[in-house]
Amino acid sequence: MPELPEVETVVRMLAPLKGRVIREVMVLHQPSVAGSPGKMSMLAGRTIERVWRRAKFIRVDLSEGLGLAIHLRMTGWLGVLAATVKDPKRDPYVRVRVSLDDGSEQLVFNDIRTFGRVWCGTRESLDALKSLKKLGPEPFDISPTEFAQRLRSKKSRLKSLLLNQEFLAGVGNIYADEALFGAGLHPLMIAEKVSVARAKRLLKSIQEVLQAAINAGGSSVENFKRPDGESGWFQRELRIYGRGGETCVVCGTVVKRILVGQRSTSFCPKCQRVF
Ligand SMILES: [Zn+2]
Questions:
Q1: pLDDT at position 223, please?
Q2: In DSSP terms, which residues pair with 22 in a beta bridge?
Q3: Domain extent for 209
Q4: Domain count of the chain?
Q5: Which of 4, 141, 266, 275 has a 20 to 30 A CA-CA distance from 209?
Q6: Does 90 fall in a domain?
Q7: How far is the CA of 256 from the centre of ligand 1 (A)?
């Protein structure tokens, strides 16, 4: 599933949509649109004002206070294509087409497994969506002191806590493993036992790995493709994620793979400790 760096990559690449006008919206798979898919027709004639991100949600602000929210989930993809690619038999995975300006180009939401979702409405109604409203702070916005305070008030294991979007927004399985490795912390350590200094180091590690991944256009571990159809390349830089059974890149110890709350977790038993 795309995490913060992948979604950030998408919104940066779609930022040039600013100023373009929506001509028509075609919903080809009704369940891909939350609520009433017919509402999408109200977007016709609106101008795209901004493409941005909150956690793993893509937001598109439109004129007259309207907007879109999109979650890519497993296989969702957004990109701009020439309108000539139109035959639903040729491309059965296009769920929503948003034709732009004179209709020669379209913003396409493609989703093979259909777990992705599109919401539309007023910006206020999108802000108020339960899944958006309950999100915790963005990893680049929270101060080290506040992060340490929040972390040390929790009894959860570090890995589970980092995946909890209400605690911190945008981190998923890949970057949680990478960040814990970078900070030298064991994924099963209980959050409230982490010292203030180590908690601050963990935030720094989270920020560093997310920034490096953003700079690399995200990780294409499973399905992620950028809006231009290319893969990100941070998967080549991953130091611990998915490396169970291999040797640690730092110390040579065999990397362990365990399940934490059903999620596959890789860690180095020597570099990552319970303090
Ligand atoms: Zn190691």
A1: 81
A2: 100
A3: 144-267
A4: 2
A5: 275
A6: yes
A7: 10
